[in-house]
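Late entry, written up from scratch paper. The run itself happened at the end of the previous shift, but nothing got recorded in the book at the time, so transcribing now.
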Amino acid sequence: MTTPAMDCPHVNLFKESNGLEPFRITQKWLVHCSTAEARQVRARSCFCRVCHTYGGRLHTCLHCIYFGCYEGQHIHNHAEETNHYLAMDLSFGQIYCFLCQDYVYDKQVEQFAQKEWIKVCRFNGWSESLLTTLPYWEPSGTELEYLKLNPKRRKISADSYVGLRGLVNLGNTCFMNCILQAFVHTPMLRDYFLAERHECDKEQCLVCEMTRLFQKFYAGEKTAYIPFRLLHLVWTNARHLAGYEQQDAHEFLIAALDLLHQHLSESNDLGNNNNNNVISGRPGMSINMIDSSNHVSVDEDSNERGSSCDCIIDQIFTGGWQSDVTCQMCGGVSTTIDPFWDISLDLPGSMSSPWHCMSPTQATVPGMTALGSPPVNGSSEQRAMSLKDCLNRFTRPEHLGSSAKIKCNNCHSYQESTKQLTLNKLPIVCCFHLKRFEHTNKTRRKIPTYISFPMDLDLSPFMASRRSVNTRDEASVDDVLKENNYSLFAVVNHLGSLQSGHYSVYVRQHRNQWFRCNDSTILKASVHDVMQSEAYLLFYHKQYLEYD
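Output as recorded:
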């Protein structure tokens, strides 16, 4: 990339002919989108004109109205056919010169970008401290010298193994290793820790150690990493996980998220972070609302119950459940919004929560059985339950009955009611916990039922906004931009019994490559291997990050 001391002559030539207006318009309407109208324009217009995708490092031509992806070389083909030599990356606002074959820097365009970024902060109500924290890097004099001494640039190819590294088992620590592998392959978490955004002066800090872990993984080393410092910090801060006994991977996931959240919150000034694009506060805190006359009013004490936080953990993992309790007498609705980090789903075969088949269409998986599913055409093959079946059951209306009457805020009397859970706010990373381990007064056992899960998941049918209009039409207008679509990127498995089991994890590298991480051993896996595995935790990432 050209530095401030080495301006691109082609950009200067373009400015002499066309002025600065193309740069200003692109930054305002297509890159930063500081108004609601601009975001709508970007959402409608910004997709590759050849492959019709929203990803692939989308660029726009600065000479004409054309959008093309960088990864598919479609913006390159357009430049070659039209001799339009300048394009702008729509993710970061950087100029790409096809004559220089590199991203180039221009001080005036940078100033436009900074002005638009300030508008974005004010439009979203972000704190004043963010106005000086611009998403751009301008090299210092020392860094310029390093750039001149190292003109070669590294490029990670599609078949690169950078980011893949085993973790040594330190004694029944497979539960920790598989969650760490899932963290390392979470795109936004990776970008945060590799950018060294966390500043800390503590001698023992879990976030600092996590930063070191990410750096070690992406340093290109092939030997297995020994996470002994991280294990010690976990033992120190989460006493219930200390020792060499077998632990639950899901329990470690929640503990790790909680500890990272706490450490990051302590290092931030929470008083200056009052507005976020996600449900704020730790899971377990509620925001109560009452709907008794076809309207919703927020409880005045809700801000005291839910502390505001914009740490990277809450930005990525926090979503919001909406619980609607409807009075059977007057129809009044009491609504509660509860933040969550993961979604725990009951499985067929559970004694504490009896299962009833709800889906008329279930995939058939050879060799797999689902409790309560009848044979298909008299054969020995059984119909497997799916992740969507579990979600349908979890979000179905539930009649609370006469033994669980609640006082209605509308008719002011105790009445029978129905309760329904729906998704109010979707997280960037949605983690599903399939409750395979059952603990009752009489028994402790593992539920081995196979649950099928998709590679791409649409959560639109489970959104509160969709349920409120009584529609589940998956071709509705709301899904045009696929804002509720997710892609699978990690699957944690538990092999063996409850008493003597072992955890491993499948992770997605790049776009279509999958690997099985079994402590220090990493082997390439097929999509079929992933989809037929006995999933315990499923990690899905949002496909498009377009927020209003």
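Residues 269-307, 356-380, 469-481 have pLDDT under 50 and may be disordered.
(Scratch paper discarded after transcription.)
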